[in-house]
Design goal:
The chain is of the alpha/beta class. It is built from 18 helices and 18 strands. The radius of gyration is 23 Å and the shape is globular.
Length: 568
């Protein structure tokens, strides 16, 4: 009880979050019965659609996840809204397109507390759910971003790092020091077991509101991974203590190169014009796509990571069974986006191609039999939050832009949306252009905008000439970034013209090989997609200024001397 009182006193400094916690505490102590299901969300990182056995992976063995899909429902046409970590994860939490929520690496902003109060974890906790967050957080919330502490204090159980969760997580994140294992997926598995404990939490470094999970309360656990993320897989070092999965598995296999792979030395015709996508400025972390040897090694590591993720899911199911809650626990699994592996010579993510936007989405509900094993409905990552709330019996806020997918399990076959909308607003000195796309089950239309960003290579060159660290000019955004980003958001809505377009008949050309924009036979379809684009992007933008707070180098310096940054 002393621990509870101490934690509650700390929470009072958060304002409205503390009111929610107080409301939850009253409900948690009412010892009500549990009519609602438990819910677990497993979110992977950099996992394209085809990385599971059930979605076509011929190398990695993923039987536990495959069984979830076979016993539940696999959406075969699910897409993220933004193919890059932070904006995609904000979209999942708030059920909003990035153009609406306004947070990215280059936006100069963090999620304001006002917006965070509408996130699915806060709403579930307010409604009486016992909530946990394990793994990685890549969403800055509040005026100090990751350092604000709002995220940690929004959960009953918090066992996570901020930003990139390294493969050897204990090396850099003190919160994981008490774990028995050194590797990320095994540390997360330990956190899952600790959250499930109804006696007393084992990790003293974890932040908790109650001493243990109440047996008579429904729970919602968010499991956020940083694999098979390219940077995480790159850190695998085959240490002595590592499981054999991460040392020898699949190294005896013949690993095929990705379809349409092109080594850097063999690129004759870039996928996009050089003045639009400046490949020479690509972040050095994606250089593994440049040679066949390097990309093969990365594919081995990613497949090892997928089998590690599958084992984690199996251990999660074992924990649910051990606590006798497996028959009332819904499991949802998806990814924040995909990753290029040298297709057409491309590395990284962010663009609006299928390899980066198309992800698996699995819903498994043990309480009922799925009407269909797969669905090709047009669904998106913004649908996750309203679906979770629906299963919990909680009304979704009006600010949500996604749809409830729970009906697909028993009767629904179509969504209300006519088109999926994806976008990239992360356009920086690293070469990526702004772009956005609409697509249905047959066609995809992509628009690109002029890339006037300074070159990362030129910045580094000047930094060295001036005796500065290159990282100082490549990372960290100042207030000017906010105005630039807002122009990125509003420009196309205010008449900014596309400088390049692509049209793909993805039903017949799923690899997006043939751009039909200049095909005389497809001009009617091009005109149709052009006309459809504007109302879709307008809907994605919504109205009003996003609920964000300044989160720049300038705001942090200013805050230290003057106080709080302004919330819009």
């Amino acid at each position: 009880m002393n621990r509870l009182i101490k934690t509650a006193n700390q929470l009072t400094r958060i304002g409205s979050i503390s009111l929610l916690i107080a409301a939850y505490y009253l409900m948690a102590n009412s010892a009500i019965a549990q009519p609602q299901p438990n819910i677990v969300l497993v979110l992977t990182d950099d996992q394209p659609y085809g990385y599971l056995g059930v979605t076509g992976n011929k190398i990695a063995k993923t039987p536990n996840i495959d069984n979830l899909a076979n016993q539940g429902l696999l959406f075969t046409n699910a897409h993220v809204t933004s193919a890059i970590c932070t904006p995609s994860r904000v979209s999942i939490l708030l059920s909003q397109y990035e153009r609406k929520h306004g947070v990215n690496f280059n936006s100069g902003t963090a999620v304001a507390e006002k917006a965070w109060l509408q996130s699915y974890p806060v709403l579930l906790r307010q409604s009486g759910y016992h909530t946990g967050w394990v793994g990685k957080n890549h969403v800055p919330v509040g005026e100090d971003g990751y350092a604000t502490g709002i995220m940690e204090k929004s959960f009953d159980y918090w066992y996570a790092s901020h930003g990139h969760m390294r493969f050897y997580s204990k090396d850099t994140h003190p919160i994981f020091k008490e774990a028995e294992n050194d590797t990320q997926l095994e540390i997360v598995s330990e956190g899952i077991a600790d959250f499930m404990d109804t006696n007393e939490y084992r990790f003293k470094r974890a932040q908790t509101f109650l001493d243990a999970r109440p047996k008579n309360q429904p729970f919602m656990l968010s499991i956020n991974l940083n694999l098979p993320h390219g940077a995480g897989a790159r850190e695998m070092a085959q240490r002595d203590k590592d499981d054999d999965i991460y040392k020898s598995l699949y190294r005896d296999k013949n690993i095929p190169l990705p379809k349409h792979y092109v080594a850097k030395k063999d690129i004759k015709q870039p996928k996009l014009p050089a003045d639009l996508l400046r490949a020479k400025d690509r972040q050095v972390g994606y250089n593994y796509v440049d040679t066949e040897e390097d990309v093969t090694e990365m594919l081995i590591r990613q497949n090892q990571a997928m089998t590690g993720i599958d084992r984690l899911v199996g251990r999660l199911q074992d924990e649910l069974k051990r606590h006798k809650v497996d028959d009332n626990t819904i499991i949802i699994l998806t990814s924040d986006h995909g990753l290029f592996m040298g297709e057409f010579g491309l590395g990284g993510k962010a663009l609006c191609y299928e390899k980066t936007t198309h992800v698996p989405l699995i819903i498994y509900d043990p309480r009922q039999t799925a009407k269909q094993q797969t669905s090709d409905a047009l669904v998106q990552s913004i649908d996750v939050a309203p679906t979770i709330l629906s299963y919990a019996g909680v009304t979704a806020p009006k600010s949500y832009q996604g749809e409830d997918l729970s009906g697909f399990y028993t009767h629904q076959t179509k969504t209300q949306r006519e088109y999926v909308f994806t976008e990239n607003l992360w356009s920086t000195h690293f070469g990526n252009p702004r772009c956005d796309a609409i697509q249905d089950n047959q066609w995809k239309y992509i628009r690109y905008y002029a890339n006037h960003n300074l070159s990362a290579n030129d910045k580094v060159k000047i930094a060295k000439q001036m005796g500065m660290k290159p990282s100082k000019v490549l990372y960290g955004y100042h207030d000017a970034a906010i105005t630039q980003y807002r122009q990125f958001v509003e420009g196309p809505l205010q008449g900014e013209s596309a400088v390049y377009e692509e049209l793909y008949h993805i039903a017949q050309d799923p690899d997006e090989l043939n751009n039909l924009v200049n095909s005389s036979q497809h001009q009617d379809k091009l005109a149709e997609m052009r006309n459809a684009w504007l109302p879709v992007i307008q809907q994605a933008r919504g109205s009003g200024f996003p609920h964000v707070v300044r989160y720049t180098v300038d705001s942090q310096l200013e805050k230290r001397s003057k106080g709080k940054a302004k919330t819009y």
